[in-house]
Amino acid sequence: MEQRYTMNEASPPEEHISTDVAIIGAGPAGAVAASVLLRHGLAVQVIERTHFPRFSIGESLLPQCMIHLEEAGLLEAVQTGRYQSKNGARFQRGDEIVDIDFRDKFTPGWGTTFQVERADFDQRLIAAAEASGATVRFGETVTAFYADPLAPALDILREDGSRYRLNARFVLDASGYARVLAQLEGLCRDARLESRMAVFTHVEDHITDDHYDRDKVLIGLHPRHASVWSWLIPFSNGRASLGFVGDSTIIEACGDSPQARHAALLNDDPQLSALLRDARPCRDIGVLKGYSADVTHLHGPGYALLGNAGEFLDPVFSSGVTIAIRSASQAAGLVARQLNGETPDWATEFEAPLRRGIDTFRAFVEAWYDGRLPAIIFHPNPPEYLKRMISAVLAGYAWDLDNPFAAEPRRRLDSLAELCAHS
Ligand SMILES: Cc1cc2nc3c(=O)[nH]c(=O)nc-3n(C[C@H](O)[C@H](O)[C@H](O)COP(=O)(O)OP(=O)(O)OC[C@H]3O[C@@H](n4cnc5c(N)ncnc54)[C@H](O)[C@@H]3O)c2cc1C
Fold first, then answer.
1. Rounded distance between C-alpha atoms, residue 141 and residue 413, angstroms
2. Residue 2 has what pLDDT?
3. Distance of CA 47 to the CA centre of its chain
């Protein structure tokens, strides 16, 4: 067994534990992977360095992820959360408003989903996996990985300073922004998207405007800063997530502190600040910078990378949790086959198909920031059939190759933007 990397390790731990599948991280990717693997009768141990509930950004889901939550047997756990329902996205540019309704879309399947406070959502998912038989170890941090196609292992540090080795038959990395195996195995590569910054908080929104639709995420183009956009994600408890994303030099120039920048960006947006005139902040301003990330490979001998531990694009179309859950569902099915004696081809059965949908989202993200997608979205008379194809991708059905905008996103977005510019 080859040891690839260790952190603060003096000597190997004496305590050894064994399982079929070890999962790093108890976020949505880890919880879905654990739930699917349990359904295949495998023993699963999830290692989570924090204690839940813990805050996470990423609160607006896409309908596509409901399919995978259902497959994993987690739908009931989600439904008992009584979350804010979501049926689409509202785009705002000054006084112009365009609603995209996910129930009216090209691809068949779920047209609604939820907007969730992640502390509660993530806790519900992992609690359901635990109730189904997963062992979940909170407050434990993975510090080393030993690659091996048949018997990979992790070293784990407990909060009391003791350590143990977890021997597995397969390791899934669902460690999110920490990207544990990408760091340990030297897989990190440039994200191929510009580095941006987000400043965000939660507010008691006190919105009374009758025209405001709580069933939609509100995405606004900032009237003063061309590269900045905002999200407003209402929850079912009268709170909402409010964030701004853009070029970091522009956001940093808006004030001397995260609080000042967030306040200035809100005050400089007349429509948003009118909507939120009675809002009260209910948590500190969070800041995330340079979050887009990629890896050279999503799998290797005895391991695969899920969700943000692999590739993360951009918050604009709320694709993160959907990609995380889908990758978990796909990988868990292949792990089950492999541990059952089959030899799945991880390149063609996991990485290539997963990347294809991610690349569709990437094409949409690029078109958002270079202005082609806003030109399409705000066009006054879009043909309904084209709107339904775009609605399907924005609802998360980026893997539906029957949809021309998923099969050939760049060519289709280019030609439609060109048409919109001249009509
Ligand atoms: C500004 C911003 C806004 C966003 N908005 C949205 C949105 O509206 N909708 C959406 O779908 N997505 C959104 N995202 C993306 C979303 O946050 C992520 O895609 C999603 O949380 C990924 O889930 P995950 O399960 O891969 O990882 P996570 O949810 O990050 O879970 C990883 C877990 O691994 C644990 N961990 C890390 N290191 C270790 C270790 N060494 N040992 C043990 N455990 C470890 C962590 O503590 C964590 O609990 C947004 C992202 C950003 C940056």
1. 43
2. 39
3. 19
**List of residues 6+ apart from 240 with CB closer than 8 A:** 202, 203, 205, 207, 232, 233, 234, 279
Same-domain status, 206 and 269: yes
Token match 């040891």: residue?
Answer: 3
Residue 89: CB atoms within 10 A of its CB come to 23
pLDDT value, residue 167: 98
What pLDDT shows up at residue 200? 98
Secondary structure class of 379 (helix, strand, coil): coil
| Residue of the CA atom closest to atom 2 of ligand 1 | 315
Neighbours of 48 (CB within 10 A): 25
In 302-401, alpha helices (H): 320-339, 346, 352-369, 372-377, 384-394
Q: Which atom of ligand 1 is nearest to the CA of 321?
A: 11
CA of 325 to the centre of ligand 1 (A): 11
Do the Cβ atoms of 405 and 413 come closer than 8 Å?
A: yes
Give average pLDDT by consecutive 10-residue segment, the chain, 423 residues.
47 93 98 98 98 98 98 97 98 97 98 98 98 98 97 98 98 97 95 90 97 97 95 98 96 97 98 98 95 95 97 95 98 98 98 98 97 95 94 98 98 95 83
Q: Are residues 53 and 148 in the same domain?
A: yes
What's the token pair of residue 301?
């001998």
- Apex CA 259: angle with CA 256 and CA 265, to 5°? 85
**268 with 410, same domain?**
no
Residue 176 Cα to ligand 1 middle (Å): 5
Q: Which of 289, 307, 335 is where one domain is finished?
A: 289
Number of domains into which the chain is organized: 3
pTM of the model: 0.96
Range of the domain at 409: 370-421
Compute the distance from residue 274 Cα to the ligand 1 centre, in Å: 31
- Of 407, 406, 410, 419, nearest to 376 by C-alpha is 419
> Residues lining ligand 1, CB < 6 A?
24-30, 47-50, 56-61, 141-142, 174-178, 180, 198, 243, 288, 291, 307-309, 312, 315, 318, 320-322, 324
CA of 49 to the centre of ligand 1 (A): 13
What single-letter DSSP state applies at residue 212? Answer: -
